[in-house]
Amino acid sequence: xxxxxxxxxxxxxxxxxxxxxxxxxxxxxxxxxxxxxxxxxxxxxxxxxxxxxxxxxxxxxxxxxxxxxxxxxxxxxxxxxxxxxxxxxxxxxxxxxxxxxxxxxxxxxxxxx
Amino acid sequence: xxxxxxxxxxxxxxxxxxxxxxxxxxxxxxxxxxxxxxxxxxxxxxxxxxxxxxxxxxxxxxxxxxxxxxxxxxxxxxxxxxxxxxxxxxxxxxxxxxxxxxxxxxxxxxxxx
Lengths: 113, 113
Hints:
heterodimer, A: mainly beta, 5-stranded antiparallel β-sheet, 5-stranded mixed β-sheet, B: mainly beta, 7-stranded mixed β-sheet, 4-stranded antiparallel β-sheet, 0% helix, globular
C-alpha cells in the first residue's frame, strides 16, 4: 500500500522567500506524480504533473522535481507571495494502489506580507 | 484539462436526512471519482463511478450509506444518506485525463447538525 509523507507539516515565511516542500512515497512503481493546492474549504487545483519518465516540471514560479527511484519529490516555490498561502498536497499515481491517487497530509503554507 | 461543476458548494443538514451532490464534467470521461476530506485530514477515496455499471467502493465505504449514480459519461451524483455529525466533511469529485492528470471539482462543504 502506497504511503505518502510530506515535510514540513506547516511553514510560515515572510513574503519573497524561496521555499522547498518535500514529499516522499513508499512505492516507487508510479506512473506519475501530481502536486495540488487547496485553499481552505475548497477543492483542489492542479499545479504540476510529472510523468514517471521526467525529472522535473516547471510552471511560472513553481518547479517540481521527481526522483522516482528514491521515492521523493520536491516542490520549489520562488519569490513567495501572500497569495501562495494554502495547503499543498502531493499525490503519486499508480504502484500497488492500482492507478489510484494517494494523498499526503499536506504542507500548510502561510506567507506573511 | 477538464472543467468540473460541483454543487452544492456547501450545505447544513439535519441529522438523519440525506444530501445529494452533483458533478457535471464538460467532456466525456470513463471514470469519475468521489473523495471525502474530514476536518484536518487529507483526502480519502470513497468510490469510483463507471458509466453503465455499479460503482466500486473502497474499504470502509458502503453503497447503502453512499449511493452513487452515473447515468452518462459527463454526470455523476453522490448521496450521503442518514447523515450524522461524523459525516461533516468536504466531498469532492474528480476525473482523470492521462495528459493532464486529475482535475477536481470545487468541493461540497457539508455540516451535519
